[in-house]
Sequence to fold (785 residues):
Amino acid sequence: MDFDDTPDEAAFRAKVRAFLDGNAERRKPGEVEGYRRGQDTPGAMERAKDFQRRKFDAGFVGIHWPAEWGGQGGTPIQHVIYNQEEAKYDVLSGIFGIGINLAQPTICTWGTPEQRARFVKPAMRADEVWCQLFSEPGGGSDLAALRTRAERDGDAWVINGQKIWNSGAHYSDFGILVARSNPDVPKHEGLSFFILDMKTPGIEIRPIRQVSGSSHFNEVFFTDVRIPDSRRVGPVGAGWKVALTTLMNERHGMRDAPGPDVAELFRLAQEIELEDGLAIDDSAVQEKLAEFYTRSQALKFTKFRGITALSKGQTPGPESSIIKVVAANKLQDILAYGLDMIGMAGPAMGDLMPVAGIFEEALLYSPALRLAGGTDEIMKNIIAERVLGLPQDPRADKGLPFRDIPTGARK
Amino acid sequence: MNFEFPDELLQLRDQARRFLADRCPPSVPRRILDTDEPYAADLWRGIAEMGWTGAAIPEEYGGVGLGRLAVCVLAEELGRAVAPVPFSSSVYLATEAILLFGSEAQKQTWLPKLAAGEIIGTFALAERPGSSDPRKLTATVAPGRLTGTKLAVPDGDIADIAVVAVNGGSGAWLHLVDLRAAGVTRETVATFDPTRSHARIVFSGAEADPLPGSTGPETVRTVLDYAAVPMAFEQVGGAQAALDMANAYAKERFAFGRPIGSFQGIKHKLADMYIQVELARSNAYYGAWAVHTSASELPIAASVARISACEAGWFVTKENIQTHGGMGFTWQMDCHLYYRRAKLLSLALGGAREWKHRLVDELRARNTTGLEAA
Fold:
């Protein structure tokens, strides 16, 4: 039992470090990674694309993909090692995550050889940026209830409807889209999956103003948008299965919640003066710090268990499915406790505040982390059904043609 | 990274699970609960014959020499089986204290007997309700004779020897005492988990043999650190068994025309139970790494393993009762076996509150929040 790299892993890590040292700036000690921090700064996209090209040229994109996808034929553990190292540097490769981690594996799994040849490499190099067009106002957790229509017209499909919670439509070249091609069959059977050129006429993009006041998401409206049938991925009516490939890639990542963690809470407790002295000397604060520390460590070691499986060439066990839900809730608990310590001055934001205002910032973005990529409730359903083997809820819409499914007034 | 037990210990785990499924089904802890038998002596002999009592004892002292990781693996299975045996007292505590701080002569005298299960050892620390901080101890040793009262000593009524913690001043803080000798009075005390026996022990001039390595109160804590890790595995094993029980019941029990496990109120509860078990298991693994390598991080690793295990044990065993509804509150269902045992184990070695303070003290002493390491 050890935390050490195997000799092969150590050699790969050294190669990764050499590349990153030569091509990126290391994060400063104590610098906190916020949620999408830095993505809005001027020139961010150009810098991100420039880095991505160098990363591609160095062979660090698609590390664990098979060679026939255009990947490096490496191992999942190499992919993890690369990401562990890259996280220590100030780079914004997350912008390209939808294209590389979600769209291309889906296209490689379900698409035609022509689609693979056309789209994979430009996405890997960030010559083309991708977005995802799945969620709708009436279909979030119940994604298969989506209503955007795809109607066949000759050798094309005509799209009408609306998507929501889209990241990056305004800077993306392509999107992956799921739409309803047949409303007369049960909901999972009437969907089809498409590649949409975002420059097609009839697409309108409206930013959503979030709780935080900033706008990282869009609503996207389609009015008679035409997609050639050659851009359909998988068979007509198989869109749900194709989308599941995307969702599995989205959810299987062992994702943590960026923002203030125990280290920041310790720093805060060492700065903040309470009734009887420094917060860190307060017995109640100490117990909370210990609880948060224990939870953070448990998350870290749960990831290590998954990494161990990868290192042995196995699939991570079901315990990896708890990481997202635990991390997002821990973030909210930590930021709430931190703000409570800050007390009456807490509402102020920015550099005036301890630990660079990260607690106040996290207050406003943290709700998103419990929603995106599967809400807490959906994640717990997944644990209950797929890990513990509990039965599904009875579904009121089971077997009904989509057009006969009841809908509420609120969509 | 290899954050997993080696294959031979995973095999030992399977073997232990089969052995205990056969020799320690729930009827065994129930028998101890329902009768005056203080522990399952037949099971204990079987465990000794399997070599488990000597798992961490080097071969030169009559043990099997498998090391501390093996004890962790066995502990998880004993927890799963709610085994009514003095394994934790004898192996995690008495044996460990002698291994850590005993003289060569003490090791040669006692370890072979402990390894063979010929004698049962225990560890006597707490004296009264409240903190078990060794600096607050009042038991003392005046030349070779121990005086003081210990409450409650796990397995204190069935053990042959005890490692007793005293306020040792500049001398030894841990002493070996033969509990069958003069100057020792012990009485069994009633507890909320009669599947594990406890005693009040009064020492009035009992002969005491100092462990020479136990030179200060911190050495008493060190024994607890080493014991907290297999104890965490035992707690995780019990929590896993309670989760498995709730899971099976949620599938079988119907209400309102469908299995209760199809209601989200139950599903999400079970998902939360699973989350607690896995978090506790991950921190227990960290503890296993620390005892295996005698890492300097042991006080931190033991604390997080302990805090997580106490939280998981309580949450999962109480929610197992809740999942069973009224049936869960009956003597007939096994839910209460896990519930009692979980709370018992979370008090043995001191409650989570004490360990939280120990954890923060350790982190501050190292001027770290530790998250950057490892």
